[in-house]
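User: Sequence for Coproporphyrin III ferrochelatase below. Tokens please.
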Amino acid sequence: MSPQAFDPREGYDARGVMAPKAYDAILLASFGGPEGQDDVLPFLRNVTAGRGIPDERLEEVATHYRANGGISPINAQNRALKASMEAALAERGITVPVFWGNRNWAPYIPQTLQELYAAGHRKVLMFSTSAYSSYSSCRQYREDLGVALRETGLEGLLEVDKVRQYFDHPGFVEPFVQGVSDSLARVREQLAAAGNPEGRIKIVFATHSIPTSDAQAAGPRDLAATLETDVYSAQHLSVARAILDAIPEASGLDWSLVFQSRSGSPHTPWLEPDINDALAIDREAGVAGVVVVPLGFVSDHMEVLWDLDTEARETCAELGLAFHRAPTPGTHAKFVSGIVDLISERLAGPDGAPLIPGRASAADLGPWFDVCRPNCCAKVMRDGTIKPTIAAVDSEVGVPAP
Ligand SMILES: CC1=C(CCC(=O)O)c2cc3nc(cc4[nH]c(cc5[nH]c(cc1n2)c(C)c5CCC(=O)O)c(CCC(=O)O)c4C)C(CCC(=O)O)=C3C
Ligand SMILES: [Fe+2]
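Assistant: Structure tokens for Coproporphyrin III ferrochelatase:
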């Protein structure tokens, strides 16, 4: 891609690529989730703080967690990811420790920053469990870090940078290649067992819907201007194509990008089509089976288990469509090793050069940048200001929004 040149300043170049640093801590930053029935509503209030999600919607979402004992699988998945990252870093002789902090549940990010500062760490590299660009998937993490530094009084004492958005990285793409290929075989088997071995299969890539205004604000303005769709959708389409190109059995099959987990007011437009509506249209058009690919997600958390494995699966059962859901990257060895690569391209070795050269990319919109330009993924706050952020050019509190 050819993004608008940065105003080169100390620490990063005109592409927004940061100079390597001797980071002394890694922050695994994630969404967080409830771990028991009593946590469910406080968690949902944290998630929706100040955003006016109606209570009926909260109650509706609560039932997804309640049905699972009030437990989101996301925290256990992050504990497993942290352990896998630690093992993979150690294997490569990298001794930088990994800390874990969440946006919406304990361990909370500000508390983790205080702990790692107290332990003597000063240069932190954040890796978040969110691969794409948008307010919810990138900027909100940057803001939460910016606000946490300010509120803990650590601003100026602790440096926090972030790993680039990694939707295009081979470590993210390759587990999907293997997963989609396996799922295709499973749907073929289901169709054969149902006496329809030649039935048409469609590959349905699913991601989180976001308000169309967030989609339009995603990524650098000048890049957005060159694309036929918004940057968020374009990134997903780019990854979907990279996955399909790597699977010979998928050649010639129909595929699409659809959206799930819409929330908010029905009057606010969000990205469409919804997966369930799209499946009904596919059935009408003669599709016999689908591989559903949770392209927008890093692990099999509640949005995958409920919206895909429960709701979309039921939709397919009602429609008589064969269904198989491909896995998320989770703790796939290639994903974990890719995370270590993403960290290594930023970590300065003894000679000051990064531990690994270059910036691997397996999809045509990559590689992304380390520092975001003004207004990248911006969202106007209700009080008309934007929040402080890390890893960006515009990090001043109270700067009027565009
Ligand atoms: C783009 C995106 C990702 C993918 C990137 C990433 O992975 O970060 C994501 C992930 C997740 N979203 C999650 C849960 C929720 N998201 C909500 C609400 C919202 N998400 C949004 C966007 C995204 N969300 C948006 C624009 C809203 C509405 C406005 C708002 O409130 O910000 C709500 C509120 C209730 C509701 O209205 O549905 C909940 C409970 C969980 C945890 C699952 C678990 O517990 O296992 C995860 C990983
Ligand atoms: Fe969400």
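Residues 84 and 336 are 7 Å apart (CA to CA).
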